[in-house]
Amino acid sequence: MIANTSRRSFDVIEITNEMPLNRTGGVGTVIDNLISGFAAEGITALWYLTDHGYDDAQIDEILARFPNVAVGPVEALDHFSAPVSHIHSYQQNPALTSYLTGRNSVCTIHSLLALEETSNNVRLGGAVAWQERLIADSACAVVLSRAERANYLALGYERLNPRVRVIHNGVRRPPGFRAPRGKRVLGFCGRLVPRKHPEYVQMMLNETGFEDCRVLIAGRGFSPYARNLIRDHDIDSRVEFLGWCAGERLEAFFDSIDMLAVPSIYEPFGLVAVEAAARGIPVVCTAIDGLTEVLGEHAFYCADTGFAAFRSAMIEWLAAPPDALAARCRDARNRYERRFTDRMMGRRYRRLFSALSR
Amino acid sequence: MARQAGPATEPGSPATCSAPVQLRLEATQLVVPPFRIGPPNRRYLQPSHLRIDLSHLETDLYRVVAVQNFWIEDRNPDLTESLAGVFLARRRADGAWEEPENWPVECRTLGLLGYIDLRDPARPLLAPP
Predict the structure, then answer these.
(1) pTM score, two decimals?
(2) Strand B107-117 vs strand B125-127: parallel, antiparallel, or unpaired?
(3) Which of A22-26, A83-87, B52-56 bottoms out in mean pLDDT, i.e. has the lowest?
(4) Tens digit of pLDDT for each residue in B56-78?
(5) A165 and A222 belong to one structural domain
(6) Do the domain assignments include residue A180?
(7) Do A318 and A352 fall into the same domain?
(8) Residue A178 forms part of a structural domain
(9) What is the model's pLDDT at position B21?
(10) Do A279 and A139 sit in the same domain of this protein?
(11) Which of A66, A111, A186, A196 is geometrically suited to a Cys-Cys bond with A268, CB 3.0 to 4.6 A?
(12) Co-location of A283 and A251 in the same domain
């Protein structure tokens, strides 16, 4: 085990496979905002990185960049103490469930893997059973939206653990807000997986009214389907895959796009929709799961999850006058300010940790 | 007599690399120098010397393919530049060259950098595309 702190006692131990460096998914972004949100709320956390995929140079960078970090096996967690442990792990490790036994522990379910399986049409092996065991072994499970709690109950997970709380994610205030924007650059940000339908926004390029548009795609994953789509629709010169963007590149992406498409069929929260709302970017999205909780009345919603409904919502966005767009984006930003900042997320977790520690 | 490695008449996708990349062999390693390929408004950059250990590969003929790298987080704010990488492709059982998009490595084919012939493990050979 290696640590960059001599402190051994904390308010909470955050157990994670991922830090905000070369993230493998949205968890790293949540950790990034928990770091700032906890700091704003006066919570002193240990960030315990275990079962990770980082190489030595990346570990050195993590230890240099973030305070109160330890890296090691689950078995070495006993070097540290805290009234609560908070789990973000998605790597199967029986030692972790042993560690949780008899402790005050919270596991945040960033997405329900049973629904990832069905919405992406993939098999995740033992990962679903692992997540279910983690839920059962934790004192409390956290999900990211009321809709996700409904999913939790529909899956019968109340039998695993009836103590389930909704804590929305939050994000730091971005460097700028700009609205209204133009009507030329369509954006998509996220993993290129079936449940997020990254092809919808590309297919818009051949629709009437979108002849002068182009698409920027920020996200990881590329497939024969993605390759064939741009070839078959003859849109290669109008679609730019930017790769897995972070930091200044992600900010440049947000600064370049005029709208963000989120046509997912399953979205436990919709972190990218909050990031867009905070920056003045109008969002065209499905009216599902966490997205409606995040954006309220301030998005262009699809009537269903099919492409025809997405096209109709995109046409509504295209037709919206600048003043109306600016007002909608201001309202979305205000909703973000009221509910979804990093500090608010930190505060909600502080209250939960306090309740568990009594 | 030295064998010729370059199967220029082999079937497969055409070479599209816009600038020659000077691959070289050092003992059992394939060395790929930093390269930048693609048109000016869409450049793909591989910024470091890559050393690929060939000693564990099956004896076969391989294509050295430049790919867009979706696996590594990119912080470069210049959106006209993206990260590149290298994929070694073998033939499948049906004779077609394997493509990076078919593997869970999150890469996109950009162009062919060359061939490497490991059919005689004692004498690996390089050939241009």
Answers:
(1) 0.91
(2) antiparallel
(3) A22-26
(4) 999 999 999 999 999 889 999 99
(5) no
(6) no
(7) no
(8) no
(9) 86
(10) no
(11) A111
(12) yes
Nearest to A243 among B78, B83, B99 (CB): B83
A228: number of Cβ within 10 Å: 11
Number of domains in chain B: 1
- Taking 60 as the threshold, does the pLDDT of residue A264 lie above it? yes
Q: What is the mean pLDDT of chain B?
A: 84
Does A277 fall in a domain?
yes
**Residue A350, token pair as written in the block:** 């502080």
Phi-psi map region of A217: left, alpha, beta (phi>0 left; psi -120 to 50 alpha): beta
Interface contact flag, A227 B101, Cβ < 8 Å:
yes
> Distance (Å, rounded) from C-alpha B83 to C-alpha A222?
14
Q: How confident is the model at residue A154 (pLDDT cuts 50, 70, 90)?
A: very high
Where residue A69 falls (left for φ over 0; alpha for ψ -120 to 50; beta otherwise) is beta
- Give the three-state DSSP class for B68: strand
Owning domain of residue A64: 2-171+341-357
Contact assignment for B79 to A240 by CB distance below 8 Å: yes
In a domain, A290, yes or no: yes
Q: What is the pLDDT of residues A103-140, one digit of tens each?
A: 999 999 999 999 999 988 888 989 999 999 999 999 99
Among A321, A223, A207, A339, which residue's Cα sits nearest to residue A261?
A207
Contact between A248 and B75 (Cβ < 8 Å): yes
Q: Which residues in chain A touch residue B101, judged by CB atoms under 8 angstroms apart?
A: 222-224, 226-227
Chain A 9-28, residues with CB within 8 Å of chain B CB atoms? 21-23
Residue B2, in any domain of the structure: no
Q: Is the pLDDT of residue B104 over 90?
A: no
